[in-house]
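Much of our argument rests on the idea that a fold can be written as discrete symbols. The amino acid sequence and the backbone structure tokens for this protein are reproduced below:

___
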Amino acid sequence: MSTLQPIIHVLQHSSDEDVMEQFFGYESLIWIDWREDEGDIIHYFNGQLSESHQIKCEINEIDKPRGVDIVLSSNDRKLTIPFADDRTDRDSAIRAMQKMIAPRYQIRWFMESLGSDTLAFLLLSTEQWTDLEKRFGKEKLEFYFQPITSESVMFSLGMDEAFELIETRQKARTSE
């Protein structure tokens, strides 16, 4: 079975709750809890990359309230995750990891995990995402697998925003 087959199946049968529920057990999903350590998040994504494409993660103690800087690096790039002075956060870590692996790979948020304190992500090559987009259309693909951009807010969504997004998605789903 190809890597994409479970994703194709869920997109073909997106209105089937059983199919969607089964996809939650898909081994390639990367589950991240809101309390997760940012260094661990980088490790989880690296687990989906070939060794030659993995991102090095260096955690340095600093004299700011957040206590650490996290520096990501590859053969040709280096990036200090742009955290607020007082805290680290999962959203910034995921956005930084996306920036480091682009354009070869893309991280996407599996939107069916919205509303939980543990969110699911899927990392595929850009070529694989492009193939899925050609097959199912950009709108449908992004409805279920939202690309991570420099503006993505996932764990930092307020409760009102999360519930509003869930409601909007439910309305859109019923009109499919």
Q: What stands out?
A: The chain is about 40% helix and 20% strand. The mean pLDDT is 94. The two ends are 28 Å apart (CA to CA). The first strand starts at residue 30 and ends at 33.
